[in-house]
Amino acid sequence: MPQGAPEARGQGHLDEGRAVAQGQRLLDDDAINAYLDIIGDAAFWGPGSYQVEAAGIHLFSRIEGSHAAILGLPMLEILGFLREHGLVMTPAGADDE
After folding, report:
1. b/e string for 38-66 if b means 16 or more Cβ within 10 A?
2. Nearest 5 degrees, angle CA 14-CA 17-CA 19?
3. pLDDT (tens digit, 9 = 90+) per residue, 8-65?
4. Contacts by 42-46 with C-beta closer than 8 Å and gap 24+?
5. pTM of the model
6. How many Å separate Cα 78 from the centre of its chain?
7. What residue segments make up the domains of the chain, in order of their start?
8. Other Cβ atoms within 10 Å of 74 Cβ, number
9. What does residue 23 show for φ and ψ, rounded to 5 degrees?
10. Using CA atoms, how far apart are residues 38 and 17, in angstroms rounded to an integer?
């Protein structure tokens, strides 16, 4: 962004250098085929054909950073942004009074 340009709403709140590093294991054909047999058609549902929240965790030797960011949604950062802007969690039905 050019110096002095107005900051886009939300920018800087959700992408503050939260790098995620993944170390993928070296897999032979048998391991890849076994993984694909386990997840079946779900291989087509996620980016990169892995679901780290399920059987896909076996594909990695390490994961550094926000687990939520790996899944595609940095929840802690989003919730912090919402709180900063006055949006807080309330009990169900609290607004009905």
Report:
1. ebeeeeeebeeebbbeeebeebeeeeeeb
2. 105
3. 343 344 445 556 667 888 889 999 999 999 988 888 887 666 777 778 888 888 878 7
4. none
5. 0.49
6. 11
7. 21-89
8. 21
9. -110, 110
10. 34
